[in-house]
Amino acid sequence: MRIFFTGGSGKAGKYAVAHLRALGHQVTNVDLAAEADGRSLRVDLTDAGQVFNAMRAFADFEELEPGSGVPHYDAVVHFAAVPRIMIQPDNVTFEANTMSTYNVLDAATKLGIPKVIFASSETTYGICFYDGELKPAYVPIDEDHPTVPQDSYAMSKVVNEVCARSFQERSGIDIYGLRINNVIEPHEYAANFPAFMDDPALRRRNIFAYIDARDLAQMVECCLNTDGLGYEVFNVSNDDMSVNLTSDDVMSRFYTGVKQTRPMGENETFYDNTKAKRMVGFAPAHSWRDVLDG
Q1: Torsion angle of alpha carbons 125, 129, 134, 140, nearest 10°?
Q2: d(Cα 216, Cα 209) in Å, to the nearest integer?
Q3: How far apart are CA 224 and CA 214, in angstroms?
Q4: Going by C-beta distance under 8 Å and a sequence separation of 6 or more, which residues neighbour residue 18?
Q5: What is the DSSP string of 75-86?
Q6: Which of 45, 46, 177 is CA-nearest to residue 124?
Q7: CATH number of the domain encompassing residue 12
Q8: Which residues are in the NAD-dependent epimerase/dehydratase domain (predicted)?
Q9: How confident is the model at residue 36 (pLDDT cuts 50, 70, 90)?
């Protein structure tokens, strides 16, 4: 596939781009921080003209050789964003994330690209950046959980989901949103997770969950390989929690009074990923337990 991938230089994107290229896909990294090393474009995604132009542009010198014009993209993966609050002013974060996503969806649908996969967020459930403590409405949190956040970043992601649903209704293409949990790179297990074992409360705002960057890359692959779902959103997490507690421990220490909708496994994530497994074949393969002892 020829894939237009925004944010491919970021923490999550660089793993997904490398994974997809290893599978033989032709991936154009569209990122303001992209290196000029072939198959990369520096694009301001808040500028609609730049987005349209980039989606109908040559991405590498080898594409000039056939002499048959600019090839079409088969899919768009949109990961680029201001990645959280407290980096830029709230209004700048909201504007950048919503306008870039609108422009990407608008260009993709008008240019007839049949699939868009976009990054939404765990923050849509309102817990991560809540002013104080907010407990889930129920656990485990699935895709039907309310999404009424307070902060500008999560608001932008909720708006993006609404826009994506409308663009799918308009065009009929496949548009899949990934509600990505806290992304962890392989080196961060040894660097960061011992502190989580000592103080599990550090993971409360992330619903005691995480997603290995390599497994997120696999989720993108699964979505590219699955056609015909229309509009869907998926929680993306690893199977276990990011703390060395049982689910009963977490319930008693942090979720007293919260409704539990079904029995849970001893170490099962509270950020339910069963929909992704069922509908696109997601199969996370990594865990902090493979790196840390005890």
Answers
A1: 40
A2: 13
A3: 16
A4: 217
A5: EEEE--S--SSS
A6: 177
A7: 3.40.50.720
A8: 4-226
A9: confident
Tens of pLDDT, residue by residue over 226-284, are 999 999 999 999 999 999 999 999 999 999 999 999 999 999 999 999 999 999 999 99
C-alpha 77, offset from chain centre: 10
Tens of pLDDT along 99-150?
999 999 999 999 999 999 999 999 999 999 999 999 999 999 999 999 999 9
pLDDT for residue 181 is more than 80: yes
Mean residue pLDDT of the chain comes to 97
3 by DSSP, 3-state: which? strand
Q: For residue 62, how many other CB atoms are within 10 A of its CB?
A: 11
Which residue carries 């000029």 as its tokens?
36
Please list, residue by residue across 17-54, b when 16 or more beta carbons sit within 10 angstroms of its beta carbon and e when fewer do: bebbbeeebbbbbbbeebeeeebbbebebbebebbbeb
**At 260, which helix (H) or strand (E)?**
strand 259-260
pLDDT for the residue 293: 76
Query: Which residue type sits at 69?
Result: G
Q: How many domains does the chain fold into?
A: 1
Percent of residues, the chain, with pLDDT higher than 70: 100
- Would you say residue 294 has pLDDT above 70? no
Q: 70-104 in b/e burial notation, b at 16+ Cβ within 10 A? A: eeebebbbbbbbbbbbeeeeeeebbbbbbbbbbbb
Instruction: Residue 95: give the domain boundaries.
Output: 2-290
